[in-house]
Amino acid sequence: MISIGNTMAAYAAARGEMGKLPGIAKPGIAVPMPSRRGACVVIDMGANVNCRPPDLVDFAVMASCYSRLILGSNSRVSDC
């Protein structure tokens, strides 16, 4: 989904249409970015200001899933 408007409205529309991963408490906004080794995923570009350590682990899981399923990467999140 691409949004040039209200982030919360985009989140609500995406969650209503696609749902969320089981066990994930907070959503994260993922942005594919180019790097010297190909594309990588940067997640939670400031949408969540009160994140706890478990939320950061969830963001890593979501970024890893996105990277593998959408970008076709076999690498771990830490490799980006």
Structure in words:
The protein has one domain. 11% of the residues are buried. Helices cover 36% and strands 15% of the residues. The protein has helices spanning 7-18, 53-69, and strands at 30-35, 38-43. The mean pLDDT is 79. The protein is of the alpha+beta class. The chain is globular, with a radius of gyration of 13 Å. Strands 1-2 form a two-stranded antiparallel ribbon.
Distance between the termini: 22 Å
Give the overall silhouette: globular
Largest pleated sheet = 2 strands, antiparallel
The Cα radius of gyration reads: 13 Å
Kindly estimate the percentage of residues that lie in beta strands according to DSSP: 15-25%
Helix content: 25-40%
Strand runs, count? 2
Number of domains: 1
Task: Kindly summarize this structure in a few lines.
The protein has 80 residues and is α+β, with helices and mostly antiparallel strands. 36% of the residues lie in helices and 15% in strands.
How are the elements arranged and paired?
Layout: H1 7-18, E1 30-35, E2 38-43, H2 53-69
Antiparallel strand pairs: 1-2
Output the keywords.
single chain, 80 residues, alpha+beta, two-stranded antiparallel ribbon, 2 helices, 36% helix, 15% strand, globular
